[in-house]
Amino acid sequence: MSKAKSFQVEQKVVYPSQGVGIIKAIEEKEFKKEKIPYYVIYLEVSDMTIMVPVDKARQLGIRAIVPRDEAQKALELISEDYEPIPSDWKLRYQMNLDLLKKGSVADIAAIVRSLYHRSKVKELPILERKLYDSALKLLEDEVSYSLRKPREEVENMIFARLEAE
After folding, report:
1. Which CATH number belongs to the domain containing residue 116 in this structure?
2. Which of 90, 122, 132, 153 counts the highest number of beta carbons within 10 A?
3. CA–CA dist 64, 40 (Å, integer)
4. Does residue 22 sit in the same domain as residue 88?
5. Span 71-128, pLDDT tens digits
6. In degrees, to the nearest 5, what angle opens at C-alpha 142 toward C-alphas 138 and 146?
7. Phi–psi pair at 148, nearest 5 degrees
8. Residue 53 burial by CB count (10 A; 0-12/13-18/19+): exposed, middle or buried?
9. Which range of residues forms the domain containing residue 44?
């Protein structure tokens, strides 16, 4: 009972909160006397290979790299005005963590924008700083793949937009 595979071998995908990866293979493993297809995904950022059941990939938020125009919109979002975020860091952290789990490039850009500006007001608590760093890295990786630009150039584009006020 094999479901249609959404992704192909060598396709780049985003695994929210893990980073951009490449599907190296689709393998079947036996589990409870049933053959289950798995994506074998290599995550360069952490030099780690993970296996994800094909039928659970969407549920885990794994998705294709966004098209060029969506990556551009995410960059534009960074320099737009935004709603003030709660001053209670625990509430803020949970809101941003939920956005990160949803994993759209726009959500990730919104996290980067709000936490960057918050860090200019007051130093971020350690957990929030880690969340910011993860979101920034994920945004840089995905946008650089989408726009086919080096990460350093994308990083400069992001900070130029963040600092343009």
Report:
1. 1.20.58.1290
2. 132
3. 15
4. no
5. 999 999 998 887 777 778 889 899 999 988 888 899 999 999 999 999 998 899 999 9
6. 170
7. 55, 50
8. middle
9. 12-64
Same domain, 149 and 121: yes
Helical H runs in the chain?
A: 68-78, 89-102, 105-121, 126-147, 151-163
Contact 133, 108 (CB under 8 A): no
Q: Which residue carries 């039928």 as its tokens?
A: 55
**Residue 153 is encoded by which pair of tokens?**
């150039």
The number of distinct structural domains making up the chain is 2
Q: What does the alpha-carbon distance between residue 64 and residue 149 come to, in Å, rounded to a whole number?
A: 17
**Of the candidates 45, 79, 44, 64, the residue with the CA atom closest to the CA atom of residue 157:** 79
Is the distance from CB of 109 to CB of 75 less than 8 angstroms?
yes
Task: Name the domain boundary from 43, 64, 85.
Answer: 64
